[in-house]
Design goal:
Distance between the termini: 41 Å
Structural class: alpha+beta
Number of strands: 38
Number of helices: 13
Radius of gyration: 27 Å
Shape: globular
Helix content: 10-25%
C-alpha cells in the first residue's frame, strides 16, 4: 500500500510511482507539511531532514517557547489567527462571532480503494487495488466540529487527490466561510505561475508569470468555471520546458466559482491553494449537518510540463470520465448551426443529413431552434417541445428518418436557461436566479433558472427525459450561454443566500447524474457559450466538451494547445467550419481546417450541400482518414513540440503516439509563409528509439532515435509546393 505512517514521529508518507508527499502532526496537534516532490525512499523518520529555529519579530504558539511559530512553519491545512498570518485554507464562523479555531489531529484510517463524494464529481477506481485512501480526522473540541481530510493515492498514475469535509457534531450552528480543497506550502518561490486564461472565442491561452512576494491568483465569480480562467494552476521552475524540469499542477474537479492562488511570504515560502471561491460564499451548518469540498487533483512532474499533462490526460480520460462512451471511439458528426442558424425546416435538415451521410458522417446534430417558437435567441428557452412549424412530422419522426439513412441523431439543449418570452417563465417567474426588488440583468436575452431549487431540477429533468425517451437520440449537446448576475434564490432564507451559487452547481450535477444514469447510451457533450465551462467537473458526466465557439483553424492552434495542458484530446470537440470563418473572417484551406480538427473529437459545422464536388471528395477522404486513425488520436499519448505561444509563435507542432509506440501522427502548422525560409526540421517525441518507422507517402524508413534526435526535414514533403499562409502537414508513422 503506497501510504505509510510512522507512529513514533506521527508522519504520513504518500508515495506514487514517481512522487512522495510527506506531512506530519505538529507538537500542537495541527498538521505540518514536510515534502512534496520527486519520490523518496520510505524511512522510519524524516525529522532529521527538516529543522526549525527561533525567528525574530514573530508570534509563537506556546508561552516561553520562542521557536514554535506557525508563521514560519509549512502546514498541511492552515488556519488564520494563531500565529500564522498568511491566508488560510478554511475559516469557521461561530455563534460568538469568532473565526479562531483549533482543529487538532484526532485519528486516521487507511483503506484500499476510494470512496465517492456525495453529490460531487470525482475520480474513481474500478478495483480497490488501483488506489489507497488516507482519511484524517481533525477536531475542535470547543465548537464540537470535525474536519475530515481525504487523500487518495493513484500509485501507477502518479496522482494524488485531496478534499475536505466539515461536520458539525455540536448543538450550536456554525458557518463555513472558507473551505479550500487543498493547500500546499512549498519551500521556496523560484517558480513561474502557469495559468489558462482568455475570454469567449479565445479560451485557455497559456499565461506565465514569475512569482513575487504577495498574492497572485486567478478566480471566477461568474457562476461557472468561466472562459476567463480555468480551475487549474501550475508552478514550474524558470528553466522547466515541455520535456524537462520540475512542475507542480493542481486541477479542481468543479464547475462553479473557484479560487486558485499562490501567496509568497517574507521567507519565500509559496503557499499554493485551490477550492471554492470564498468571495460571496458561506455555508450554514446546523447540528448534524456536513459540507463536502470539491476534489482537487495534484500532479508533480520532474520531466517537464508534457509529463504533467500526460498524467492529467490519463487520469481524466480513464478515471474521471465515465460511462459507455469513455473508451469508445467518438463518431464523426456534423452540426447544422453554422449551416442554418435558426432558419431551417424538416426538409432542409434531412437534405443536410443525407448529403453528410454520403461523405461518411456518422452522427447528425440538430442545434438550437427546434423547440417552442424559437426563430431567434429571444424566445422559448424552457419550452422543450418540438416546433410543429419547422418539424411538422415531429422530432421523433425526423430522428427515425435520419436513423434510416444509417446515421445517429443528436440534439441541442440549454436546460439551465429560460427566456422571458416562454411558457415556462409565464408560469413560474419565481424559478429564476434573482434578488427581490432588484433589476434582473440578462445575457443573450435569457435568464438563469434557479437550479438550487429541487422542483426546478425535477421539472427540467422531466422535459429532457421525455424527449430522450420518445426519440432515438444518441447524443446531447448541453449548452449554457450566460453567466450569473443578481445571484439569489427566492426559496432560500437570508442566512443561506451565499450558498446559492454552489447549490446551483450541485443541481446541475444532479440533473446530469440522473440523465446519464437513465440514458447511458447517450453521448453528452458539455458546452457553455463555447468553452466557458470546460472543466474536470463537467468531464465526469460528459466525456467531451465543445472547446470553443471559435472554429478558425489558426486560433484553434492556441486554444487546443492550451487546453491540452490539462485535458485529454478525446475531450476536445474540434470541427471543420465554413470560410470565411464566422468568428474571425479568416480564409484557411479545407486541408488545414481538418489537419487542426483531427486532434480532437472530429466533426463538421457547415453546409455540405453548398460544397463543390471537389470539396466533397476532399471531405470524404478526410473522414476516412480520421476513422482510420481516431483510436490513435483519442487514446494515444499526446506530445506538444512547438508552441503557438512562443515568442515567434509562427509554428505549432504536436504528435499523438499509440501506447505501444507502433503508430504516431504528427501535426505541423505554419501561420504565415516566409520568404526563402531555409530548411524546416521537426523533432519527434515519444517514439521507440529502437523501432523502424515508415511515413505514409514516402519510400524511406527512419528509426525512432533518428526522428527524435536528428529530426525530420519537412521540406521533403512539400518541396514542390509554393509557400502559403496558414499551411499545415499531417504525417502518419507506422512501425515497419
Amino acid at each position: 500500500m503506497p501510504i505509510f505512517y510512522n507512529d513514533s514521529t506521527r508522519e504520513f508518507h504518500l508515495q506514487t510511482d514517481k512522487t512522495s508527499y510527506i506531512f506530519n502532526v505538529l507538537e500542537n496537534g495541527q498538521l505540518g507539511q514536510l515534502y512534496y516532490g520527486k519520490k523518496l525512499r520510505h524511512r522510519k523518520s524524516f525529522q532529521r531532514l527538516f529543522h526549525i529555529e527561533a525567528t525574530p519579530n514573530t508570534a509563537c504558539v506556546n508561552e516561553g517557547d520562542l521557536v514554535f511559530s506557525l508563521d514560519i512553519l509549512k502546514q498541511e491545512y492552515p488556519a488564520f489567527g494563531t500565529t500564522d498570518f498568511r491566508e488560510p485554507a478554511y475559516q469557521v464562523l461561530q455563534e460568538n462571532g469568532s473565526r479562531i479555531t483549533h482543529f487538532v489531529y484526532q485519528d486516521h484510517s487507511i483503506l484500499q480503494g476510494k470512496n465517492k463524494l456525495e453529490g460531487l464529481p470525482a475520480t474513481y477506481v474500478e478495483s480497490e487495488d488501483e488506489a489507497a485512501t488516507l482519511e484524517i480526522s481533525l477536531y475542535d473540541k470547543e465548537i464540537d466540529v470535525e474536519i475530515r481530510l481525504s487523500y487518495t493515492v493513484f500509485d501507477e498514475l502518479n496522482a494524488i487527490t485531496r478534499s475536505a469535509r466539515f461536520i458539525n457534531h455540536g448543538q450550536a450552528e456554525v458557518n463555513v466561510a472558507r473551505a479550500m480543497s487543498a493547500s500546499i506550502d512549498l519551500p521556496d518561490s523560484n517558480f513561474e505561475m502557469v495559468q489558462l486564461s482568455g475570454a469567449w472565442s479565445r479560451e485557455r491561452h497559456i499565461k506565465n508569470r514569475k512569482l513575487v512576494p504577495g498574492i497572485q491568483s486567478i478566480a471566477s465569480t461568474r457562476g461557472t468555471s468561466s472562459a476567463q480562467h480555468n480551475p487549474f494552476l501550475a508552478l514550474k521552475r524558470p528553466e522547466t520546458t515541455e520535456h524537462q524540469g520540475e512542475v507542480y499542477g493542481v486541477s479542481l474537479v468543479y464547475s462553479g466559482n473557484f479560487l486558485a492562488q499562490v501567496e509568497v511570504d517574507h521567507y519565500d515560502v509559496s503557499r499554493l491553494m485551490i477550492g471554492i471561491n470564498p468571495f460571496e460564499f458561506n455555508w450554514l451548518l446546523k447540528s448534524g449537518e456536513d459540507f463536502q469540498t470539491p476534489e482537487v487533483v495534484l500532479v508533480y512532474s520532474a520531466e517537464g510540463l508534457n509529463s504533467m499533462s500526460q498524467t492529467f490526460h490519463r487520469l481524466f480520460r480513464t478515471r474521471l470520465a465515465r460511462g459507455q462512451w469513455r473508451d469508445r471511439e467518438r463518431p464523426v458528426l456534423i452540426n447544422n448551426w453554422e449551416a442554418t442558424y435558426f432558419d431551417f425546416d424538416e426538409k432542409k435538415i434531412f437534405e443536410l443529413a443525407k448529403a453528410s451521410k454520403a461523405l461518411g458522417v456518422e452522427l447528425f446534430v440538430l442545434d438550437d431552434g427546434w423547440f417552442g417558437k424559437r426563430d431567434s435567441d429571444t424566445t422559448s428557452l424552457g419550452d422543450w417541445a418540438p416546433d410543429a412549424r419547422k418539424l411538422p412530422n415531429g422530432l421523433t419522426q425526423l430522428a427515425k428518418d435520419i436513423n434510416g439513412l444509417g446515421m445517429e441523431f443528436g440534439l441541442w439543449f440549454e436546460p439551465e436557461m429560460v427566456s422571458k418570452v416562454s411558457e415556462l417563465y409565464k408560469a413560474h417567474p419565481e424559478w429564476v436566479i434573482r434578488v427581490p426588488n432588484r433589476q434582473m440583468s440578462h445575457g443573450r436575452n435569457q435568464l438563469v433558472l434557479d437550479f438550487s431549487r429541487q422542483e426546478v431540477v425535477d421539472y427540467i429533468h422531466g422535459l429532457m427525459a421525455g424527449v430522450l425517451r420518445d426519440a432515438p437520440i444518441s447524443y446531447v449537446k448541453w449548452d449554457m450561454n450566460r453567466y450569473m448576475t443578481e445571484v439569489g434564490s427566492l426559496s432560500l432564507p437570508a442566512d443561506r443566500q451565499r450558498e446559492v451559487a454552489h447549490r446551483y452547481i450541485l443541481g446541475v450535477y444532479s440533473l446530469y447524474e440522473r440523465l446519464t444514469a437513465e440514458f447511458p447510451h447517450v453521448l453528452f457533450e458539455s458546452c457553455a457559450g463555447g468553452g466557458s465551462r470546460f472543466d474536470p467537473g463537467m468531464l465526469h458526466y460528459a466525456p467531451q466538451g465543445w472547446t470553443s465557439d471559435d472554429t478558425d483553424a489558426v486560433e484553434r492552434l492556441k486554444i487546443q494547445y492550451g487546453t491540452s495542458l490539462v485535458y485529454p484530446i478525446s475531450s476536445m470537440g474540434a470541427h471543420v467550419s465554413a470560410v470565411p470563418n464566422h468568428q474571425v473572417g479568416r480564409m484557411t484551406s479545407l486541408e488545414t481546417r481538418a489537419n487542426v480538427a483531427y486532434f480532437g473529437a472530429f466533426g463538421y459545422e457547415l453546409d455540405v450541400t453548398m460544397m463543390t464536388e471537389a470539396e466533397k471528395e476532399t471531405v470524404k477522404q478526410q473522414i476516412a482518414f480520421y476513422k482510420e486513425n481516431r483510436s490513435l488520436i483519442q487514446q494515444g499519448r499526446f506530445y506538444r513540440i512547438e508552441s503557438p505561444f512562443a515568442e515567434d509563435g509562427n509554428r505549432t507542432s504536436w504528435v499523438a503516439v499509440s501506447e505501444d509506440q507502433r503508430e504516431a501522427m504528427l501535426g505541423f502548422y505554419q501561420v504565415l509563409a516566409q520568404p526563402n525560409p531555409g530548411l524546416t526540421r521537426i523533432f519527434f517525441k515519444g517514439l521507440n528509439p529502437e523501432f523502424e518507422y515508415a511515413i505514409e507517402g514516402m519510400d524511406d524508413t527512419f528509426y525512432g532515435d533518428e526522428l527524435m534526435a536528428a529530426g525530420f526535414q519537412l521540406n521533403r514533403i512539400r518541396s514542390n509546393e509554393h509557400p502559403s499562409d496558414f499551411s499545415s502537414i499531417v504525417l502518419k508513422l507506422k512501425q515497419v
